[in-house]
Amino acid sequence: MTTPPSYEYYGMMAEFWDLFRGDTSTWDDRFFFLDVVKKYGQPVLDVGCGTGRILLDFMQQGFDIDGVDNSPDMLALLQQKAEKLNLKPTVYQQEMTELSLPRKYQTILVPSSSFQLLLDENLPPVAISRFYEHLLPGGVLAMPFMTLWKQGDPLETESTDEATRPEDGATVRRWSHTRFDQNTDLEHTIDRYEIIKDSKVIASEEHHQSPATRSYTQHQAIALYEEAGFKDIQVFHEFTFEPVKPEDTTFCVLGIRSE
Fold first, then answer.
1. Rounded CA separation 104/42 (Å)
2. Which of 74, 90, 140, 244 has the lowest tally of Cβ within 10 angstroms?
3. Please, are residues 97 and 125 in contact by the beta-carbon 8 Å criterion?
4. Is the bond leading into 211 cis (omega within 30 degrees of zero)?
5. CA 177 – CA 169 distance, rounded (Å)
6. Torsion angles phi and psi, residue 29, rounded to 5
7. Which 3 state secondary structure label does DSSP give 168?
8. What is the β-pairing status of strands 105-109 and 91-93?
């Protein structure tokens, strides 16, 4: 049995990432991050840039933005997309906890709750301190967080999605199972991908991430920012600039590096 890579997004999960996301140009977080950059300035760093959803979009608008991700599979797909757009992005393959880049940034974005992929409880403070060190004085760190489970929710969920592969019309099916552990605040996942052509499964791949994602409450997210030394910490309702509500399970946190 082949040992899976140490990073989460590889193989079919990376290959079909964009296919299952579809058109992201109208997503709420895109407009939120655009407003953050316009308000707080450039240069920008996109942490967990993946296949370039935010990075390439913002480059096309003339923004000075770099990217970093720990998955070579995702970065290879990003480069393929960039070539088609005649863009030459600056991207780095690094872990958040080991971030060491040649310049500092006015705005650091961590889209898609990528920060929650840090599973060991000792790692988030390390990563957020690396973000702090890569900000210019007065620079801002913007990260969305998700509370993955609340009282009354099922502890296990299951779903199936299908999409059509454009190049050959094959059906790509993704079956997903999640299990939340209340004692550790960690979610465990299984994702199975199947490529179906002429009613036959011609390829399949199964990904087990146990654990996969760490859940955060509003209090826990704010405490991380405070411990790292951020000032003027603001917490917003989902991807808006409205104040967070106590019941919000998706919220964005902004913090300013001291002058």
1. 10
2. 90
3. no
4. yes
5. 26
6. -65, -30
7. coil
8. unpaired
pLDDT of 88 = 98
User: How far, CA to CA in Å, does 38 sit from each of 64, 100, 237?
Assistant: 12, 25, 19
Q: How far apart are CA 55 and CA 59, in angstroms?
A: 6
| Total residue length of the chain | 259
Instruction: Name the 3-class secondary structure at 144.
Output: strand
Answer whether 0.70 is exceeded by the pTM: yes
Q: How far apart are CA 50 and CA 14, in angstroms?
A: 9
The tally of CA atoms less than 13 A away on the side-chain side of residue 86 is: 0
Two structure tokens written together for 79: 């480069």
Per-residue model confidence as pLDDT tens digits over 29-61: 999 999 999 999 999 999 999 999 999 999 999
Domain boundaries along the sequence of the chain? 11-147+216-256, 156-213
Dihedral sign (CA 181, 182, 186, 191)? positive
> How distant, in Å, are the alpha carbons of 22, 31, 60, 258 from that of 86?
21, 23, 10, 37
Identity of residue 80:
Q
**Assigned token pair, 185:** 């605040």
CATH architecture assigned to 11-147+216-256: 3-Layer(aba) Sandwich (3.40)
19's tokens: 């296919």
pLDDT (tens digit per residue) in 58-94: 999 999 999 999 999 999 999 999 999 999 999 999 9
